[in-house]
Amino acid sequence: MAETSLKEEEESAGKGSQLKFLLPKSSKILKKNEFKALNSSKYRLKGSYLILDYRFNESISNPRFGITIRSKIAKAHIRNKFKRQIREIFRLNQRKLDKNLEILVISKKNSKDLNYQDLEKDFLNLISYIKK
Fold first, then answer.
1. Under CATH, which number does the domain 26-126 receive?
2. Per-domain residue ranges for the chain?
3. Alpha-carbon distance 17 to 10, whole Å?
């Protein structure tokens, strides 16, 4: 699924230009007060495996995200794997998001045993409900 869309974008971009699917530090939410502001936002979407808190911030120019997973859910290596997968999903799909969007991804208990495809399907399903 992701390969076909990537090929289509490469063809539409032309031979001279290269696609840049980078995840710069500016697209990550790192500060505690930003996490608190997102966590207390009034917009929340609940999926099968993920919870998304989001808000629109007019002072940013590219979509940003943060990841939260409780230590009681799983051991450290499983939590790190979950975070890597969510980062990759966001990196590949950030062009589909609104430029002023900030997202906080919160894991549910049943998300620790999932594969990448299930997480991506749930994330994209929730993203489709976000409207400005």
1. 3.30.230.10
2. 26-126
3. 9
Instruction: Determine contact, residues 78/115, Cβ cutoff 8 Å.
Output: no
- This prediction has a pTM of 0.78
23 is written with which tokens?
A: 């995840």
Q: Quick check: 19 pLDDT over 70?
A: no
Q: Residue 31: pLDDT above 60?
A: yes
Residues 34-80 have pLDDT tens digits of: 899 888 888 999 999 999 999 998 999 899 999 999 999 889 999 99
**3-class secondary structure, 68:** strand
Question: Which region holds residue 14: left if phi is over 0, alpha if psi is between -120 and 50, else beta?
Answer: left
Say how many Å lie between the first and final Cα of the chain, rounded.
Answer: 27
Quote the DSSP letter at residue 22: -
From 100, 115, 114, 124, select the one nearest 45 (Cα to Cα).
124
